Amino acid sequence: MRALAWDHGCLAAQRLGAMVGPVTFILPDGRACNPLFMAPWTFDPRRAELPGVLRRLRGEWPCVPFGADAERALSPGWSARGPTFAGADVPHGPSSNEDWRWIEAPEGSLALQLDYPADHPVEFLTRRLTPDPSAAAVDFELSVAVRRLD
């Protein structure tokens, strides 16, 4: 877990899923606002038994590729058939279930990267979190490098 603080708040991010949370914004009237969800089992030791995305579920994170349940009925004209690859059935994609690695970031930012398996259409993701120095706001940036478009 790493954290940033600035005049208008503080945020924390973790390697699992590159999830962000908690975040506290200090509003112009001085009130504190914590808009992101933290799972009630965050500190329960039994959370290790849960699937990756749920173990330390919090706030906000990228889902690439999001994925779908092929058994679920789709609207007319939509097809569940298409290219498949290892890990295509992982809920919310590998990005939500794997530990990312911290990478170098500009001063006042946090950055993480996740490399995908060699046979996956996505090569890697890079995520940067940058608090706005003049406001109670955070910029979320996600770059997706692909090997092929299926």
Can you describe this structure?
With 150 residues, the chain is mainly beta. It has a single domain, classed as Beta-galactosidase, Chain A, domain 5 (Distorted Sandwich). Helices cover 5% and strands 31% of the residues. The protein has helices at 52-55, 94-97; strands spanning 2-6, 9-13, 20-26, 32-33, 101-103, 110-115, 122-131, 138-146. The strands form 2 sheets. It has a 4-stranded antiparallel β-sheet, with no helix packed on it. The model has no long low-confidence stretch (mean pLDDT 87).
- Rg: 17 Å
Assign the CATH topology. Beta-galactosidase, Chain A, domain 5
What portion of residues belong to β-strands? 25-35%
Strands of the largest sheet, in order across it? 1-2-3-4
Summarize the structure.
This protein has 150 residues and is mainly beta. 5% of the residues lie in helices and 31% in strands. It has a 4-stranded antiparallel beta sheet, with no helix packed on it.
Descriptive terms for the model:
150 residues; mainly beta; Beta-galactosidase, Chain A, domain 5; 4-stranded antiparallel beta sheet; 2 helices
Task: Provide the fold topology.
Blueprint (H helix, E strand, L loop, with lengths): L1 E5 L2 E5 L6 E7 L5 E2 L18 H4 L38 H4 L3 E3 L6 E6 L6 E10 L6 E9 L4
Antiparallel strand pairs: 1-2, 2-3, 3-4, 5-6, 6-7, 7-8
